[in-house]
Task: inverse folding
């Protein structure tokens, strides 16, 4: 029926003009959203309902830029926008850069009187929380007159997303008091609460309270069990996670077993992970978790068996799984196999490119890492590097002594891609310049950071002090030592680094003084750690 749409023969559909929105919705559901603009151009009546459907379809199909572009066209066309016009746009804003655009949309909603409904306010709560501006989410939430379960859920998720575990539990408790946790959707709220609070420091007790509430209210652990397993796994209590699994009155489903595998891997219980894996039907998530265990445990033999299982079941179309396979071979030093996997990935994402570049970088192939990075930057790759990509390229340049290329990499990061270098990028470049003995360039870099309003952090001063120690730059080294101690006076590694510097320049009195201070304050350096790493 829809074949004719691909060629634009809309006249054969008869009554499209009377039901344009339904037509667009059905058409988009067939994953043909790339043609929607053409379809709408040919409709006799381009009404706002059809365009709203188009906005939503772009967002559902993972194209927020298209949602934003169409919305701008609608605004320029002076169309009468409704709350349903703004809801998908707010969703697009939450995943696009520049939070200011979201605020501008909010202001436009107020101008059009489209901000008062529960649906619109819920979308605003979600957008601001994804920006990390939870205070604005709270303001919008408090302004909602008739809060429904969706608005409560948005506020709860916003707290969890931003690491406010105590506040999330407060919201949850209020939901219970307001009788918002109904039997039909109670499992969902228990699930998102216990599965997310575990990542927040210091609230193990509250997590156990939620677990107790699940039991007291008679919730079936078949539904809530996966969330509880995720929670206990995230706080390192795999024994409790296994108790939840053992207490089930019904066979565990695939999702729960996958969570157990993931939890065992995260907590380095690799043997248990493999034993559980043997009891379930192969699936992408389980294999991905198991391969992560192989990467951490450098168990190449088992990793190869899992790779064969993935091939046999046709899972290699999954990019995330391929990325983990690539990483496993790279960590085992099998660069040729890693490259073969890389070439076979159908839809390479930024992780795919970065992992392969990192494989070359870590194993001393700096030139190959740089060559692959340049290939990634070409338009044909359709993937832009992120800050992690630039970090592994800088690391590769450092290993290979490619100083000029490293400096150019930092320039491209700022000027071409508009990314802000972090302390780790500057540390990498400082170490690179130190190896080449170019102390003057290090101090020029420090001046550039000040011009760009970049704050110098303790790791940066630690790297500068290391460079001064390596190149016997005594006077500036003493200045770097003072700055490091001012910024990080309670870190044992800082004392050790400064002490080592004074030992290099043979100021033994200061070395003994620093060691005495460390002993007095009970500061112990962790074995094998390095402040500048």
Result:
């Amino acid at each position: 029926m829809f074949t004719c749409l691909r060629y634009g023969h809309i006249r054969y559909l008869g009554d499209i003009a009377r039901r344009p929105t339904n037509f667009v919705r059905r058409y988009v559901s067939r994953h043909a959203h790339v043609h929607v603009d053409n379809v709408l151009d040919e409709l006799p009546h381009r009404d706002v309902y059809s365009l709203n459907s188009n906005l939503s379809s772009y967002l559902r199909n993972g194209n927020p830029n298209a949602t934003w572009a169409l919305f701008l066209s609608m605004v320029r066309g002076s169309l009468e926008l409704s709350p349903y016009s703004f809801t998908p746009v707010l969703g697009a804003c939450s995943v696009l850069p520049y939070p200011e655009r979201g605020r501008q949309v909010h202001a436009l909603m107020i101008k059009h009187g489209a901000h008062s409904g529960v649906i619109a306010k819920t979308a605003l709560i979600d957008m601001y929380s994804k920006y990390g501006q939870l205070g604005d989410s709270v303001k919008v939430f408090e302004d909602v007159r008739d809060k429904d379960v969706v608005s409560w859920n948005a506020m709860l998720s916003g707290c969890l997303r931003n690491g406010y575990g105590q506040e999330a539990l407060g919201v949850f408790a209020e939901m219970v008091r307001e009788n918002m946790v109904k039997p039909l959707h109670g499992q969902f709220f228990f699930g998102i609460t216990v599965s997310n609070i575990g990542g927040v420091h210091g609230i193990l007790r509250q997590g156990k309270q939620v677990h107790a509430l699940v039991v007291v209210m008679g919730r079936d652990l078949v539904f809530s069990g996966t969330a509880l397993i995720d929670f206990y796994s995230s706080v390192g209590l795999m024994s409790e996670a296994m108790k939840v699994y053992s207490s089930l009155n019904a066979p565990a489903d695939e999702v729960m077993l996958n969570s157990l595998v993931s939890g065992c891997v995260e907590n380095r219980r690799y043997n248990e992970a493999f034993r559980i894996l043997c009891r379930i039907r192969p699936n992408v998530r389980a294999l991905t978790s198991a391969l992560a265990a192989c990467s951490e445990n450098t168990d190449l033999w088992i990793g190869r068996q899992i790779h064969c299982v993935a091939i046999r079941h046709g899972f290699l179309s999954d990019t995330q799984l391929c990325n983990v396979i690539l990483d496993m071979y790279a960590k085992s030093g099998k660069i040729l196999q890693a490259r073969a996997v890389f070439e076979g990935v159908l839809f390479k994402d930024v992780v795919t490119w970065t992992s392969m570049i990192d494989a070359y970088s870590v194993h001393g192939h700096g030139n190959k890492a740089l060559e692959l990075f340049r290939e990634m930057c070409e338009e044909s790759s359709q993937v832009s590097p992120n800050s992690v990509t630039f970090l592994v390229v800088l690391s590769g340049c450092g290993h290979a002594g490619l100083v000029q290329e490293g400096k150019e990499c930092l320039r491209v990061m700022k000027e071409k891609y508009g990314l802000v270098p972090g302390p780790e990028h500057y540390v990498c470049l400082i170490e690179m310049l130190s190896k080449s003995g170019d102390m003057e360039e290090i101090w020029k870099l420090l001046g550039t950071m000040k011009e760009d309003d970049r704050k110098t952090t303790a790791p940066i001063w630690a790297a500068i002090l290391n460079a001064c120690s390596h190149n016997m730059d005594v006077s500036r080294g003493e200045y770097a030592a003072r700055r490091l101690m001012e910024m990080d006076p309670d870190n044992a590694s800082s004392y050790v680094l400064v002490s080592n510097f004074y030992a290099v320049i043979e100021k033994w009195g200061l070395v003994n003084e620093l060691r005495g201070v460390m002993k007095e304050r009970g500061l112990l350096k962790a074995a094998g750690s390095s402040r500048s790493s």
The domain at 451-533 is CATH 1.25.40 (Serine Threonine Protein Phosphatase 5, Tetratricopeptide repeat). The mean pLDDT is 80. Residues 183-197 form the longest helix (15 residues). The chain is about 70% helix and 0% strand.
